[in-house]
């Protein structure tokens, strides 16, 4: 185990290529009428002194003010935010000195972490389709046997992993992967019983969900999973990037560009929003997404996501049942070629992002902090930045972003995964051919 001491850094200029650098063709959608600008307040209630109050009516610290994190010029400067604070909020700085500890290394493009009850970690390796068990001391098991084959081309492979909410009784684990199929591939969700030991394996593998239709694409599968306290499972799905997939992002007959919600056995919850629509896929929760690689629940158990934009326009959203989040009709980015995608940033019946970045950070894993090791981080979002090579912290108050910080820039690493450990530390995965498990604690 190796300890790296890092100073706190408010981010330098965001540079680097997007997670999915392959250009896509311009969208040929028709122009839609602008829906008007949402209310121009901060969304934060104030007391007589102009200081925000918490739910108990007790004044909190004043909201951050000042310049934003340095980000460089916007790719699409003609697209203005729909409301104040939708982008480039004031920069903030963590007061607690940080320590970064290297737990383990030698992973080939690791993608996800999930904690077993004894604080050992399940770690997926995207490129090889391998799953490992890693101890807090850095010991790595042999690859867990019994997992199905993956299509590891491009952005495919073995992706997220989660421990079932009833693991103590069932030993069930869940994972997402790019499933090779006749005629192409598609994201699948599988579950199986984990048999622990010197040669770990899974048995009784069941595929509980398949993204449909099948398409030949190596891009934009999505793949993050989030269990809710009532036992439901959210799964995020990309729109496959190529135009044949992009065109289906708002089509309820397709899983592309959706967040879906299922039961742990793959059945459909009785209160899903499209259950009674015979034309729709009943698993759909929300539509109009591009490629959601970040997802987490807040303190109210509501789902938040961060999705990749094209060139500009990475978005923070709070997907709600039956709502349309606009892709590809509206957005704040452009094609990698510089050609336009959207004729407007707003349209009737389509939701605005809570926050967006232009230029992009290329977001990946995320967590919403609920631990006690860092009291100043309570309820803040932490998002892995791939292109930005940073850990992005967003201070959120009353469902609006009010402050932003870019941490760990001195690591110069693409951060693929961010999870909160059982003891309140943050655990990160670096996206590299020698990927690492890192642990962030107070110094």
Description:
The chain is 2% helix and 34% strand. It is built from 2 helices and 24 strands. The chain has helices at 167-170, 243-246, and strands spanning 2-5, 98-107, 110-115, 121-125, 130-134, 158-163, 172-181, 184-195, 201-210, 222-227, 233-237, 259-262, 284-286, 292-297, 303-307, 314-317, 355-357, 363-368, 381-385, 390-397, 400-407, 415-420, 426-430, 435-442. A 5-stranded antiparallel β-sheet has the order 1-2-24-23-22, with no helix packed on it. It has a 4-stranded antiparallel β-sheet with strand order 6-7-8-9. The longest helix is centred in the middle third of the chain and has 4 residues, at 167-170.
Secondary structure layout plus pairing:
Blueprint: E1 2-5, E2 98-107, E3 110-115, E4 121-125, E5 130-134, E6 158-163, H1 167-170, E7 172-181, E8 184-195, E9 201-210, E10 222-227, E11 233-237, H2 243-246, E12 259-262, E13 284-286, E14 292-297, E15 303-307, E16 314-317, E17 355-357, E18 363-368, E19 381-385, E20 390-397, E21 400-407, E22 415-420, E23 426-430, E24 435-442
Antiparallel strand pairs: 1-2, 2-24, 3-4, 4-5, 6-7, 7-8, 8-9, 10-11, 11-12, 12-13, 14-15, 15-16, 16-17, 18-19, 19-20, 20-21, 22-23, 23-24
């Amino acid at each position: 185990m190796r300890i790296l001491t890092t100073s706190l850094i408010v981010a330098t200029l965001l540079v680097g290529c997007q997670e999915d650098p392959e250009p896509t063709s311009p969208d040929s959608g028709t122009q839609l009428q602008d829906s008007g600008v949402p209310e121009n307040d901060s969304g934060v209630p104030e007391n007589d002194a102009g200081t925000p109050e918490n739910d108990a009516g007790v004044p909190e610290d004043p909201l951050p003010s000042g310049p934003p994190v340095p980000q460089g010029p916007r790719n699409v400067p003609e697209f203005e935010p729909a409301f104040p604070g939708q982008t480039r909020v004031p920069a903030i700085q963590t007061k607690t000195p940080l320590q970064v500890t290297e737990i383990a290394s030698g992973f080939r493009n690791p993608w996800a972490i999930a904690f077993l009850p004894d604080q050992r970690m399940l770690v997926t390796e995207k490129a090889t389709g391998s799953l490992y068990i890693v101890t807090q001391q850095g010991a790595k098991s042999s690859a867990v046997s019994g997992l199905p084959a993956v299509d590891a081309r491009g952005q495919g492979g073995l992706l997220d992993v989660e421990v079932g909410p009833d693991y103590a009784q069932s030993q069930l684990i869940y994972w997402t992967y790019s499933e090779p199929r006749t005629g192409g591939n598609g994201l699948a969700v599988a579950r199986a019983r984990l048999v622990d030991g010197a040669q770990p394996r899974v048995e009784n593998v069941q595929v509980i969900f398949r993204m449909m239709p099948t398409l030949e694409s190596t891009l934009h599968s999505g793949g993050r999973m989030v269990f809710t306290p009532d036992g439901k499972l959210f799964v995020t799905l990309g729109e496959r990037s190529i135009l044949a997939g992009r065109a289906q992002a708002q089509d309820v007959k397709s899983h592309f560009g959706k967040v879906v919600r299922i039961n742990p056995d793959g059945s459909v919850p009785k209160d899903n929003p499209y259950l009674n629509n015979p034309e729709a896929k009943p698993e759909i929760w929300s539509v109009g997404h591009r490629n959601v690689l970040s997802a987490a629940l807040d303190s109210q158990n509501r789902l938040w996501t961060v999705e990749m934009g094209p060139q500009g326009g990475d978005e923070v959203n709070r997907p709600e049942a039956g709502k349309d989040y606009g892709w590809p009709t509206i957005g704040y980015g452009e094609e990698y070629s510089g050609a336009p995608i959207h004729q407007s940033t707003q349209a009737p019946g389509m939701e605005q992002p809570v926050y967006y970045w232009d230029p992009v950070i290329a977001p990946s894993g995320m967590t919403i902090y609920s631990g006690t090791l860092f009291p100043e981080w309570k309820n803040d979002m932490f998002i892995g930045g791939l292109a930005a090579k940073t850990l992005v912290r967003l201070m959120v108050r009353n469902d609006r972003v009010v402050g932003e910080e870019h941490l760990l820039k001195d690591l110069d690493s693409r951060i693929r995964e961010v999870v909160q450990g059982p003891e309140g530390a943050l655990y990160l995965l670096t996206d590299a051919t020698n990927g690492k498990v890192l642990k962030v604690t107070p110094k």
